[in-house]
Design a protein that fits this description.
14 helices, 12 strands, globular
Length: 385
Amino acid sequence: MSNHTSYGIGTNLIHAGVEPDPSTGAIMTPIFQTSTYVQDAPDEHKGFDYSRAGNPTRQALENALAGIEHGQYGLAFGSGVAATDAVIRLLNPGDEVIAANDMYGGTYRLFEKLFVKFGIRFHYVDMKDPENIRKAINSNTKLIWTETPTNPLMNITDIAAIAAISKAANVLLCVDNTFASPYLQNPLDLGADIVMHSATKYLGGHSDVILGALIVNDKQLRDDLFFIQKSAGAVPGPQDCFLVLRGIKTLHVRMDRHCENGAKVAHFLRNHPKVAKVYWAGFEDHPGHEVAKKQMRNFGGMISFELKDDSPENVKRMLMSTKLIALAESLGGVESLINHPATMTHASIPREERIKNGLSDGLIRLSTGIEDVEDIINDLNQAIG
């Protein structure tokens, strides 16, 4: 359990949930590379009995996660989709979920390919207008799943407005906060029940770890999710927890640069004669700009764009022509990454569904890194040609 303090956000990111190691005074949480713990007598132990149920390194991370998201309880999982999986396991056959029609392809795949066959129904709606959610709620609805900004179209959903709808209907609201990170947005403060992160991304920040997180305020909800975690076993190892703990300490300085570079790159792309469209919530004419300004501290480093010549050949040529920017899955690392959602991160979504929701075959997604921004822009410029 964690209490977030009255410190500033940067101070909180560095110190949340972390205490010097009581046995040695080590300022950094040690990596407790152990599977089990010696007990003084049957069921008499020092708070840990088996590392699937709990590990001191993981506990420090879970306390930090709670602190940085202004929640009471954090849970760390083996991956972002493992955390998502635990949330859906709260449900029973016959229950229904309202999910965003624009979201991470791996979430869609988990819902449609694994959970539908267990009798859970998913309704995908355009969440840019919260009224669409209200209309979709029925007596079987148990969960609303959203993300904002969305992956990859950078749509913005009004968390406070959706939270008001979910509370009135007595439905859980889970927000995937991966793209914004806790530095830019805190959904629990806006009324969400659960915050999910792929900590692989901005929280880890260095493209060297796979880890997922859930943060909640409700003790019963925490206990239910912990029971699922302990029973199903999708837990991270202590080394991975250590790496995310370390990443969190520099989140604020990294995100400031991601945002600064992202803004410059977005404007460069928008002004480029060969670019047709740029998706980034920082533009004043972005349909979600006002909501983003209200619920986020800045607009982030994630950008999607389309070329005027969006033929498969030209898009592929551009993606293979960058020298500094790496063509790779994932996002949120210190290095700039470029991605083709239709064949990479969102390939699991049927093409007609993708197209209907605005995700074209030519869309390119860019995770703006923290390099010198001139180098990023020059690389994009030469690759676009």
